[in-house]
Specification:
Helix content is 43%, strand content 16%. The protein is an alpha/beta fold. A five-stranded mixed β-sheet has the order 2-1-3-4-13, sandwiched between helices. Strands 6-5-7-8 form a four-stranded parallel β-sheet. Helix 13 links the parallel strand 11 and strand 12. The structure holds 1,3-dihydroxyacetonephosphate and iron/sulfur cluster. The site of iron/sulfur cluster has 13 residues, from helix 5.
Length: 307
């Protein structure tokens, strides 16, 4: 691979300083190219636990850095900027969950991994988009509060019509903007194409999909269907990275490219990564130990229930 000058400096400096760079799959290729590991939020956190290096730079949004810190408290976890937040994770106030639990003590609280440490700390089980259905099934509970994503929540509700699942009204501003009309238009233009979508999209969009899955599941689906034209209904980073490696990149179609951009993910730049080394910038994730331990419970339960 041909690296540019900034990339070369970062690669040299990370080796010299025992630093590992993790990047979420929504990052631009210039960032994923310098990362030691690229993946979805949960895979990144699991990988971080195995990493020998003492310092981790997390190229993603804040909750991803927090998840790494919750699982690996002895490591120094640095975000290139404090500004990269997931708007959906910020939509929920943990006090609302506590108030709900006080009024409804017989409900279990399931939270999406896209939540702050404070929210995870007051929930029972954490899930990812790929494990939500499997975990809700194995929990064997009839009354559930699902936070914060209304779309992933309604996807889970549909899978268990017999359960009482209350869903909060958070959403991902990127995926929630997709419409059934946009999908129908794309399908008309590419009639042979399969359509894959993230469950953070609204129900009427998900209904039109040939495949629904998390970021990693979408990538796997695309790789497992190398001869198919595929319309991709998730954040543009997935498409931008795949067209660099796919044998036949023209077969890949980004649905609604203008809106499928997570501005927060794109706040990570090569310059912001480099200046962690050269100017000691960046935002270190530090969680009070009591909060970390409380948040860890919901993540450990996720592992117990089978992610
Ligand atoms: P993953 O958990 O699949 O990485 O998704 C994170 C996310 O922000 C989806 O929009
Ligand atoms: Fe959050 Fe959506 Fe961005 Fe994912 S794509 S980090 S859910 S705002």
């Amino acid at each position: 691979m041909q690296f540019n000058e900034i990339q070369k400096q970062i690669i040299k400096l990370k080796k010299e300083t025992d630093t590992v760079i993790l990047a979420h799959t929504y990052q631009n290729p210039e960032i994923t190219e310098i990362a030691d590991f690229v993946g979805d939020s949960f895979v990144l956190a699991k990988y971080a636990k195995e990493v020998k290096a003492k310092r981790i730079i997390m190229c993603g949004v804040r909750f991803m850095g927090e998840t790494v810190k919750i699982l690996s408290p002895d490591k120094e976890v640095i975000m290139p900027t404090a500004e990269a937040l997931c708007p959906m994770a910020e939509m929920i106030d943990p006090k609302d969950i506590v108030a709900f639990k006080e009024k409804n003590p017989d409900y279990s609280v399931v939270c999406y991994i896209n939540t702050t440490a404070e929210t995870k700390a007051v929930c029972d089980v954490c899930v990812t988009s790929s494990s939500a259905i499997r975990i809700v099934k194995s929990m064997n509970k009839d009354k559930i509060l699902f936070v914060p994503d209304k779309n992933l929540g309604s996807f889970v509700q549909k899978a268990f019509p017999e359960k009482d699942i209350v869903v909060m009204d958070g959403y991902c501003p990127v995926h929630n903007d997709l419409t059934a009309e946009q999908v129908k238009e794309a399908k008309e233009k590419y009639p042979a194409a399969l359509f894959t979508v993230h469950p953070e999209a609204p129900a009427e969009v998900v209904e039109l999909a040939d495949h629904v899955g998390s970021t990693s599941a979408i990538i796997e689906f695309i790789k497992n269907n190398p001869d198919k034209q595929i319309i991709i209904g998730t954040e543009s980073g997935v498409y931008n990275n795949l067209i660099k490696t796919d044998k036949n990149p023209d077969r890949l179609i980004q649905l609604s490219p203008d809106i499928m951009v997570c501005e927060d993910m794109k706040k990570i730049t090569l310059e912001s990564v480099l200046s962690i080394f050269t100017e000691n910038t960046g935002f270190e994730i530090n969680l009070p130990e009591k909060l970390r331990k409380q948040a860890l419970v919901s993540i450990e339960n996720m592992l117990t229930y089978g992610d």
